[in-house]
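hey all, quick one before standup. I had two proteins in the batch that finished overnight and I want to keep them in one place so we stop losing track of which output belongs to which input. First protein below, input sequence then structure tokens straight from the run.
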Amino acid sequence: MRRASKRIFFFVITAILFFLWLSCAGIERRYGDVVNTFVSGIENVHWGLDLNGCLELIFHPITNTVPNSGKMGASASILQQRLFNRNLIDSKVFVNESKHEIIMRVPLGGSGDNMKELINELTAQSVLTFRDGTNTTENGKPRGETLSGILLTRKDVDKVSVFSFGRDFGVTIKFNEEGKKRFEEATSKLSVSGGVISIWLDDNLITALSVSDTITNGKASITGFGTIADAIEFANKMNTKELPFGFRLQNARVIEPRFGVKGKMTVLILLFGLGALAVILLMVFYRVGGIICSLALAGQFAVFVNALTGFLSSSSYLAVTIPVCLGLILVVGLNLRVCFLTLKRIKAALKDGKTAKSSINFGFQKNAIKTGRFALLLLGMVLIGCFGPPITLTNRVLNWLFCWIVSVHSIVSEPLYSLGRLLVAGVFADILFGFFAFKWMLMSLVRFKVFKNPAFYGVSLQHGETEVKQLTDSHNKKQRVSQRAFVVWGVLLAATAINVGTLFKLHLHPTSGWFLNFSYSGTLSREQVAKVAAEQKSLSGCVEIRKFSDVASGDEGFSVFANVERGKDLAEFEEALKREFVGNNIEESGKGYVTLTMGSNVLIKLLSVFCFVYTMESILIYCCSKKRKKTAQVSHDLS
């Protein structure tokens, strides 16, 4: 930027403050008790299971035979995907192999009707059929030729996608090769009599298609949806897989947060405390430059709030969990490093006697959109594609890339998906506010004569030891070291999400172990139970203790999860509890071995992702270094 008007400074500040206000306050309109949210504000931030508690639902299969572990694991994966389709990203699904039941933990909130609707949708077997006609009984069930005339089933459908034309929305059903032939035969037969093909889900009529001609392209379009949300909901129902058998709700209980009722406030104090410390250091060391940088960081903060809330009401949100907070610290720390390095280079140039304008240009020379941001953006997109919902574009694009290792659709990990979205948001925040807005404000500010004084940027002497060459020579090395450190930090963060055994002793999200639920009478605190658990040598690993309240009976109790392989270890713990608290009448209400749906394939996929990103980054760095050497050689020859 060669020239910046004085007015740009005030324009950029006004834009940042307005964007910050819009992101925090949001926009909504109330019609009595109905609230329509157009822009989500900071009050719409959703807290995760570990900081806000959850509702635990226990489902039993409806079948005459004992289900095997393969069908139970497949059912858990399908249920997890259905939760993602309803935007309940921060949810956990476990399989209790000993009692053949599925334990689901979903975020608290919503009315009873919404929760009832959620349970009905989750437990539905979702048998999709295409039938001849719409002959139904009084209860809306198929009968006659409609009952017996099944034309196509779910196995004939390839995918269902949403499209828009003008202000209307619709969905396109694409059949596979076998389904294409059967659909052509059905439409050829029904087009003669002007028949109807009806679509049924669990013997419930969804919609009906009039057939006027033979369809040979293997596609069927359905229009008439009022909103994009209705079209997406219909597409999700069509795309969801069929459960091997139905499920019924056995029990429901409310469980307290993993880190206690004060965990949320502790996290807020930590995040805002670190942010305040960074702003203070910027102002102390770099004066006016630090103040301008703090304003740019305010714009980046607004971007992160938008990433958490979804900004627009139709976008998906991110639940604030401990892994998300670690990811925020990671991304903000990387952006702060760039800001500190830029201000340090400006300060060094001023010490070397350069003008304020030349110093600012020098400070942003190595802050262009180069390999570091490319690596972050690439890693974020790959994490979104590999560990997010299958309905995302990046997931469909990257599905073929890692299919030789394990199917992308079989892995859904909320912490890694959230980390990917935060990385993408961090890169755009750094480019928009940490580079462009920051530079525009500085270049506009030095147009004022008073701000050309180096003292405003933390420089007491205009002349001193030359630091420019030292900074230029060491920049590339520091950049490579910091990027390698980022890879290590990312692996550790991922370890907190998938629990790599006892190697790192990180158990924020255990994948398997034994659980024990027990009720009690009188008063019993979480600290007392934790003290007994600490005395058990066999429970040296991860022990998670949560208090629960049964929704139906209102009875209170504790749920203890231990990352152990033997049920005998929890049995000894149960006996110790009964001996220690004789007067509390401790009674077991459930015990079993559970496994999380993510499984060990997440680690394989994660290592593949990091190897891919590391390789692409190394290739890019090599190409850039070769280009710099070639440019330097040409300049030397010309001179």
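OK second protein, same deal, sequence then tokens:
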Amino acid sequence: MNMKKSIAMIIILTLMLLLMMTSSIQAAAISKVLNLKMERQENVVSFYWDKVFNADGYDIFISTAGKEYQYIGSVTGTEARVIGFKKGVTYSAKVRAYQKKNNGTKITGNFSNAITVETTERTTLDKTKTLTASQTGGNVTLNWSQVSNATGYEVFVKVPNLDYISIGKVNTNHAVIINCKEGITYEFKVRAYKQSNSSTTYGEESPSAKISIHTKQNNEKYNDKIEAGAVKNLTAKVSGKSVTINWNKATNADGYGVYIKRENESYYHFTTNTTKTSLSTSKLDYNTEYTVKIVAYTENNGKIKYSNNYKTVKFTTEKKQISAAKNLTAEVKNRNEAYLQWWPVEGASGYEVYLSKENKTFQKVDDITKNYMTLYSDDLSYNTSYRVRVMAYEYVNGKKIYAEYSNIARFKTEKESPWENNLDVARVKNVKAKVTRDTVSLTWNKVTNAKYYEIALTIPGFSGETKFQAYTNSKTILGLTEKGDHYTARVRAYQYVDGRLVAGEYSEVVEFMAK
């Protein structure tokens, strides 16, 4: 189904919309689009990117739920406002620059990196309605009303002659601010926030709460109770992105304050007070270093006094398992050959390829490091249905750690003697490719009495094949994309047979990479 019909993508006409463009070719003269970004307001998604030198305009492509990218329109500026995205559907977008030539052709550059389009409705958060502040020695305890659907809360403080500044975020409706200075009046505010995959929504700030620090008066109330000591044998046991903290009871302690900070952060976030000597949490990120601080406290008449003694422990969460390969496609080439490709998986060491014939059991047919391959006639039969899937893996300490299977791609090879080819025309053999920077030179053996040759080129980022003609047994093609992009090519001869111009069978596929 055409994407412009299926998701009704429309580029808003405040920008120049350039549809019905002529056919385009790749060329190295146009640079790759960089820094593609997006911003969503209500039902409009605005895309932005850096200007490309000498570009006449830009083509916008959209993919729905990991399917093939489809062209939806062009603009002359570096912004496109697009409507027509459906709620709850995953989209991705990419952009390329182009130049228009006098003869009507359009020369295009390399695609930008793809970005995910956020279509989930943003949650509206309520205002944090109440906020109270109490003092224990040089520490201030804040408590506030919970906000429904909030991921956490951001705390702000104002001191004399300064505006409010953010001092951190917590995921509970209370926080302890330590080491406040004697004689200073502090003013606090709190606001809720909701974190999604690509954006953060904030609620309205709470009313302010003021408190003046007078530690001498408050400390006199604790003269009858000895300060708590430091905890001992503090340990952290990591499992995935979860951790369990354990410690031995501190002397004179009534409970413990738990604080945490990420690597490179300059301050600790208060987590909770507990009377237990262990704590577990899974609200951490993968492959991240954390430091946990445990501070013992004493309690008197409902007032908490934190000890000046504390212990810390560092730990690093485990690396997240790699993702499954996505967008696996299979395209039949020479009747009983198939070209496979899929999106590369970040962190993958390699891929195992599995093939099923006529819906039978999958069998492993290859183990490769690249994200494409050709299944040749040795693996496939004529006029047969197949399924194929891929499993990415990563080597961890010399052992293969597997991701989930990719999607299943289906294809059917052609009959042994299809009508469109004529067996009287010899099959092209010995196709070779020599790449120099952005240029490939293809050569092959001559076919006797050939009128001309047709070259079918697969270009990264495009569906189907791009066709070229040659009247000798060689062809030079300019404008390969940047290093690392993979191409395939195949060639067939055309010849007059009984007064009719017919095509021979395509050659075997030759694979090559842009340098």
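Flagging for whoever picks this up: The radius of gyration is 32 Å. The chain has two helices and 41 strands.
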